[in-house]
Amino acid sequence: MQSGVGSVGSLEDGKVPYARTTIQSTRPLPLRLLPFLLLFLVVVSMYSFLSLYMSLFLKIQNVVPVVQSRIQPCVQEPCTLEKWIRPPSYLIHTMNDSELFWRASFVPRIKEYPFKRTPKIAFMFLTRGPLPMSPLWDKFFKGNEKLYSIYIHSSPSYDPDFPTSSAFYGRQIPSQDTEWGMMSLCDGERRLLANALLDISNEWFVLLSEACIPLKNFSIVYEYISRSRFSFIGAFDEPGQYGRGRYNEKMSPEVNLTEWRKGSQWFELSRKLAVDIVQDSVYYPKFEQFCRPVCFVDEHYFQTMLSIQSPHLLANRSLTWVVWPRHKPHPATFGKADVNENFFKKISEDS
């Protein structure tokens, strides 16, 4: 029997067996199939290329870029009572006078405070520039930080250089130029009052100049002012050319001659009277228009207005010791040679 692959010779013939293989020749691939094969290879290659491209494209599209924002989230401060009663930590602001006076005129209708309030004295310095007496005032204020506030109104061109350890450091308010004898001087005083009123703990307001010095220690001053039911401002009906002689009939009917008052520029006022001055829109236009340089408006405006509105709240004298030379518009000044033991003894006797 013959197989298709090979056969083995019989052993019975006594011959050495041998293997015989038959090699069948392969048929050549028909030429007509070659174009189809090439087309198949091209299609497969294109399919593979497109699959790879789509895979990479979809992978890129699915990657979401993460960009870290530099904008910090806005954390809004809770609207608590502390937010409303906290005094301004920085006295410089962008409010104009109208905005400032409006803001400062807010008054609680309920007299009792719903928190523990320690009343303070606002010491307001109306100056032209430096405060040469500041080292002495620093000693006066030391140890009483919770009982006072300081405010400085100076020339806008003045750049203060108080040391950080001074009580005057960072206490300058937005200021404007003031002119002696003009309404701009009273504007500076109203500006001081308004800024001090923004601190709800300020209960008493004392106006001072760069030439003032304390004559008593802080505890005596605080006790004297806090126990008094009066505000200290001089307001006198003075006859003659330096008193009634400065009155202008055009100020009537808001101000009559019998209501015209004169007094020192320096004062101590309660919070109520400070608000009255800041919110005034009745007397201010009259004094601005009809109390011109020879009138010296700072000696008449507050004195007359408060005498008309609240005469029962005035002590009718000032806490500032001043010497007025006869027939001179400015108070006397004292130098190093004048200041001695007898000088202070005289002040104590006069006051």
From TrEMBL:
**GO molecular function terms attached to this record:** glycosyltransferase activity
Q: Which residues cross the membrane?
A: 33-58
Q: Where does it localize? A: Membrane
Where on the tree of life does the source sit, at the highest rank?
Answer: Eukaryota
Q: Which UniProt keywords apply?
A: Glycoprotein, Glycosyltransferase, Membrane, Transferase, Transmembrane, Transmembrane helix
Whether Transmembrane helix counts among this entry's keywords is yes
Pfam families, A to Z: Branch
Entry GO CC: membrane
Name of the featured protein: Glycosyl transferase
Which species does this protein come from? Olea europaea subsp. europaea
Its taxonomic placement starts with: Eukaryota, Viridiplantae, Streptophyta, Embryophyta, Tracheophyta
